[in-house]
Write a structure and sequence with these properties.
about 260 residues, alpha+beta, two-stranded antiparallel sheet, ten-stranded mixed beta sheet, single chain, 2 domains, 12 strands, Alpha-Beta Plaits
């Protein structure tokens, strides 16, 4: 029987979702727990890779298992065999043709930032630290320019071998705490939600870095449009660190995440 499960993890100690030789992965830990639970080798396929240090609230996986354990009880059984920084949140039977990767229609990522003149240790593991104030108005204007179907080659880190760099960004939403009436965030938190049909290597982190540059007055809407037109990575903002990025949800229907 095929099952679909939602997995949450804190990515600090992992080289990413996928098994690798250079360190522990989320996939390795989950497959070990599944195999111990079902008494047979069990492979888990995820909706997509997350890089080293990236977190997930709603990673979706599928796996095949012959078990008498009720689907709603599987998370309880598996979680007793998982480390504290990985958890199965739900599990349900699905049709044999369901594929966590290829059936996915859209994904939502969140990039978390805190703006402060001084380092805040409580936020350091899950937020990128920006020292200078940000103009949310300028950031939203550039976010509007990024939305839609584009060739996102200029928002891709080197090292990828994908056939096409065309992707569709359905929405970019900025949610801020502590912003002034004029839209300036001098002290507070900012979450950037990006929903799309798929993402290139480091694409969300580069989008977030580009929006930060826009908020600091380093990039304009015209500059962002030029990145999209030329595909020149050097014209966009920097790639923000992985610890601020979280995979929020994966959608498999027509609804938005």
């Amino acid at each position: 029987m095929r099952f679909r499960a939602v997995i949450s993890y804190f990515g600090k100690e992992y080289v990413g979702w996928q098994r690798q030789l250079n360190g522990p992965s989320v996939q390795e830990a989950l497959e070990r727990a599944l195999s111990e639970t079902f008494g047979a080798p069990t492979h888990a396929t995820a909706s997509g890779r997350t890089d080293a240090g990236v977190h997930a609230e709603g990673q979706v996986v599928h796996f095949d298992a012959d078990t008498a354990i009720p689907p709603e009880k599987i998370p309880f059984a598996v979680n007793t065999r998982l480390p504290d920084d990985i958890s199965m949140l739900s599990c349900e039977p699905v049709s044999e043709d369901f594929n966590a990767r290829f059936s996915a229609k859209r994904k939502t990522y969140r990039y978390d930032i805190y703006v402060s003149r001084h380092r805040r240790p409580v936020l350091e593991q899950t937020h990128a630290h920006v020292v200078t104030p940000l103009s949310l108005t300028a950031m939203r204007a550039c976010a509007d320019a990024i939305e839609g179907e584009h060739d996102f080659k200029g928002f891709e880190a080197s090292g990828s071998a994908v056939k096409s760099t065309v992707r569709t960004v359905y929405s970019i939403e900025l949610k801020a705490e502590g912003a002034a009436e004029d839209g300036t965030l001098s002290e507070g938190r900012l979450s950037v939600y990006v929903t799309g049909n798929g993402f290139l290597y480091n694409m969300v982190r580069i989008i977030a870095g580009t929006l930060v540059y826009a908020g600091q007055g380093k990039l304009s809407v015209e500059d962002v449009e030029r990145v999209l037109e030329t595909g020149d990575r050097t014209l966009a903002g920097k790639t923000l660190p992985p610890h601020g990025l979280t995979l929020v949800s994966v959608g498999y229907g027509e609804e938005k995440c």
